[in-house]
Here is the input.
Amino acid sequence: MIRSFKYKLPCLLLLIILRATTDQSLYAQQGVYDTIVSSAVIYQGDTIEAKTLEAVSVYSRYNADQLAARAAWTRLRNAIYVTFPYAKRAGVVMNDINAHFTYIKDKQGRKKYIKTREKELKKEFTDPLTNLSVYQGKILMKLINRQTNNDCYEIIKEYKGSFNARVYQTVAFFFGSSLKQDYDLTKKDNRDIENIVKEIDGVWYQNPNRPLIN
Here is the structure.
């Protein structure tokens, strides 16, 4: 009997140790330092755990319509970046001419003054303007309208006469364009132009020492 108990004693001790270990693992979360702090919200009387998930970026390919729209926007934006400085310059020149006209009353004197300004502008802008595409020229005329509140047909008619205005309008027509480019902001195309112009005004012209043309 003693001998049998001698061999059973280690087995009992092993069982006691295993039981104690199992009991501790079952109640391990009851320790003071085992509490997990979590945010929660109360929704309709229930307390619900709340967590802020990390942002997830989702990407997808453009379809054909989206690609076409992006290409059209990029083309428009590039054209405005090229032509807007010329439109601003045109507005300044027109204001200066009109200011001089207050002191020049006779028709011949005005024509003579316009010719002197025309020579100056041709020397300054002939080369860069002849390199514009038809599309860029159309955008330029819209921007000139924006800066002067007059379309190019009316400007040419005022300074060069009705005949010259009709001639230039005919030439523009054969190139698939028109001197009578409006700037009505109820139209989406013109609103797009206005948005891009405001972008340029915020970026380019904050620096008064920036060159007129890049």
Residues 23-28, 210-214 have pLDDT under 50 and may be disordered. Residues 64-101 form the longest helix (38 residues). The helical segments are 2-26, 64-101, 107-130, 134-148, 152-160, 162-174, 188-203.
